[in-house]
């Protein structure tokens, strides 16, 4: 089992009020799965993705990634796990726009022990794999939206992760480019990488093998396994 | 190397402000060190005077016509003139031998240096602080024909006590005859201040009486006289001299001695010299220190401001680092490294300059009056200032950085 989440709950304080972003979320994801986490805006899907991506912690519950109890790790160990096991693709691409493509893709390698001479080789390989090898010398802000998302995917891939978490990865793209990006995710999934996509878009969710639907912080549907609302 | 690259990335798109702040920081620190150095030099020479002179000392400034001296047939007209004054002074009961600045020029390693001649009395009296060796070794006999000397200044920086320096003195003889070997028995401590009785004026303080010497201090004795006679060295004497009342003299005898000088020229008593020196130090304190302290404060605030501005601009970038597996701790380390680098560059440039100051001024690469002190204390001050400014900037920057978590930044950009 790649991901084991049990009873994940996250509450935000807004002034004196409490807002439950995630309410007792329990599910598992196997290695090599292609999963969509679907929900409307404010349903709690990004919160769930942040917790699954080790960017944030839950107030209660437990989360194991690749058998590691994530909530027991310290800042440094969590960062290492994020670096080695996880790749992120976000709606706004999260690239350093004034830097060149190669620096952006290389960034995760700066935070582990990859030798410098190997870094460039790995960057060239992943850029070729996502089809933008020729853009290596350009700055991120010189690329189109689709190209930028490919750069983000290349960055997610550069450390050979077990899972890629994508938060509305096609949200800023036109439909043609969206399809290309989804095809790329499918190709990567076929190579054995688990893909977890957060989306509000039915068409995107339909491209995935499994759907987890979330409403008001609760999981209401998990690939046919329907929970009570 | 990877961490260094990330530290340099901190300055990405902020290079110009960072360079400007580093230049400003360096210049202000240099200015502050120079001002503090000048103030400390005034205080150092005052303390030196307190140590080597007695409350009975008198600084005498004979009024001499340079024209008369130039037209004199004597090789050392000022020396002869002071000799004549001293002959007269010997008649007074409070007389003590004059201390005068007698020197000859020489060439050491292709550069002109001064060789000050101290009488045995002066060697005992002006036993100036040494960084190595002993004044008492000036009396030691050498079997190899070397003459003992105390080295002073940057030209002898690379020589150790016990080493031999070959100096070609200015004189009548051939180059071989004029080249004498001096054994270094001691090295004068920074700021290489030695008595130099040439200054004259209505305000006379210790700062003018003890000036930087780039050269050697030699002791007048038979051995040196023989050597100088052989090479025909041109000895010069400065116009002024120092003397003192004989110990145990009555007030009448002192008055008689003082009157002998005052009838002919201007005299400063020890009390007057000390009062002038204290006045100068007080003036230096008020004049020199406020501006550097103000500028140092402004620079500290500027470094802090630029650090905070850069941090605010970089929050998004550091949230991306976090996404890629950079821990918060490592982000703190990168930010701290970059801010420290800015203050460190300024501090290091100042330390390098201060370490090279005496060499640069001695060799004429930069103009320097020599009335300043750059020593271990100056280096310590620079290091402490660099660390304090870096610490303050880091502390405030990290407080701001901590307030915005990566999740908040992602959410901000999502909306």
- CATH topology of chain A, what is it called? Rossmann fold
Overall tally of domains of chain A: 1
Unreliable parts of chain A: 224-229
Mean pLDDT of chain B: 88
Strand order of the largest sheet of chain B: 2-3-10-5-7-6
Global geometry of chain B: elongated
How many individual β-strands of chain B? 12
Number of helices of chain A: 7
Spatial order of the strands forming the largest sheet of chain A: 6-7-8-3-9-10-11
Strand content of chain B: 15-25%
Largest interface, C-beta closer than 8 angstroms, per-chain residues: A-B, 30 and 25 residues
The count of domains of chain B is 2
Biggest β-sheet description of chain B: 6 strands, mixed, barrel
CATH architecture of chain A: 3-Layer(aba) Sandwich
Indicate the overall shape of chain A: globular
Instruction: Give the amount of beta strand of chain A, in percent.
Output: 25-35%
Determine the N-to-C terminus distance of chain A.
26 Å
Instruction: Count helical runs of chain B.
Output: 14
CATH superfamily of chain A: P-loop containing nucleotide triphosphate hydrolases
């Amino acid at each position: 089992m790649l991901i084991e989440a049990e009873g994940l709950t996250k509450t935000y304080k807004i002034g004196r009020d409490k807002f439950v972003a995630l309410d007792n979320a329990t599910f598992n994801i196997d290695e090599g799965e292609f999963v969509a986490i679907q929900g409307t805006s404010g349903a709690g899907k990004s919160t769930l993705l942040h917790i699954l991506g080790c960017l944030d912690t839950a107030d209660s519950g437990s989360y194991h990634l690749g058998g590691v109890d994530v909530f027991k790790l310290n800042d440094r160990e969590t960062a290492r796990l994020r670096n080695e096991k996880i790749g992120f693709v976000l709606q706004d691409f999260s690239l350093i726009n004034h830097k060149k493509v190669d620096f952006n893709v290389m960034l995760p390698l700066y935070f582990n022990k990859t030798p410098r001479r190997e870094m460039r080789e790995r960057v060239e390989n992943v850029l070729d794999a996502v089809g933008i090898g020729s853009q290596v010398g350009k700055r991120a802000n010189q690329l189109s939206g689709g190209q930028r998302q490919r750069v983000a995917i290349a960055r997610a891939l550069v450390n050979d992760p077990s899972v890629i978490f994508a938060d509305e990865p096609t949200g800023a793209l036109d439909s043609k480019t969206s399809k290309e990006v989804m095809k790329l995710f499918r190709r990567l999934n076929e190579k054995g990488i688990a893909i977890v996509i957060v989306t509000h878009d039915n068409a995107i969710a339909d491209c995935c093998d499994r759907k987890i639907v979330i409403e008001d912080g609760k999981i209401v549907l998990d690939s046919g396994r329907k929970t009570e609302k | 190397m990877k961490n260094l690259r990330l530290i340099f990335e901190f300055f990405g798109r902020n290079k110009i402000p960072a360079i400007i702040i580093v230049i400003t920081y360096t210049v202000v620190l240099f200015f502050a060190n120079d001002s503090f150095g000048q103030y400390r030099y005034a205080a150092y020479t005052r303390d030196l005077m307190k140590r080597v002179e007695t409350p009975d000392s008198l600084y005498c400034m004979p009024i001499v016509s340079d024209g008369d001296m130039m037209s004199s047939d004597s090789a050392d007209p000022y020396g002869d003139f002071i000799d004549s004054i001293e002959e007269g002074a010997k008649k007074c009961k409070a007389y003590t031998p004059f201390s005068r600045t007698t020197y000859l020029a020489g060439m050491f390693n292709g550069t002109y240096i001064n060789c000050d001649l101290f009488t045995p009395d002066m060697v005992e009296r002006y036993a100036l602080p040494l960084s190595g060796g002993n004044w008492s070794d000036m009396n030691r006999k050498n079997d190899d024909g070397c003459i003992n000397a105390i080295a002073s200044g940057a030209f002898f920086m690379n020589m150790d006590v016990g080493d031999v320096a070959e100096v070609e003195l200015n004189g009548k003889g051939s180059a071989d005859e004029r080249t004498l070997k001096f054994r270094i028995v001691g090295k004068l401590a920074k700021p290489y201040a030695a008595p130099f009785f040439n200054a004259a004026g209505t305000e006379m303080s210790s700062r003018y009486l003890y000036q930087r010497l780039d050269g050697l201090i030699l002791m007048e004795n038979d051995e040196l006289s023989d050597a100088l006679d052989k090479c025909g060295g041109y000895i010069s004497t400065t116009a002024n001299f120092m003397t003192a009342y004989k110990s145990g003299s009555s007030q009448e005898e002192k008055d008689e001695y003082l009157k002998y000088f005052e009838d002919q020229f201007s005299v400063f008593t020890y009390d007057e010299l000390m009062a002038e020196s204290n006045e100068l130090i007080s003036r230096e304190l008020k004049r020199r220190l406020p501006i550097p302290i103000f500028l140092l404060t402004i620079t500290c605030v500027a470094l802090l401001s630029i650090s905070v501005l850069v941090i605010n601009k970089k929050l998004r970038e550091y949230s991306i680092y976090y996404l890629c597996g950079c821990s918060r701790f490592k982000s703190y380390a990168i930010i701290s490294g970059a801010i420290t680098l800015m203050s460190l560059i300024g501090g290091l440039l100042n330390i390098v300059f201060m370490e090279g100051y005496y060499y640069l001024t001695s060799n004429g690469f930069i103009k320097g009056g020599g009335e300043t002190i750059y020593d271990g204390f100056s280096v310590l001050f620079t290091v402490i200032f660099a660390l304090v400014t870096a610490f303050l900037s880091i502390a405030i920057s990290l407080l701001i950085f901590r307030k915005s978590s990566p999740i908040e930044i992602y959410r901000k950009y999502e909306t």
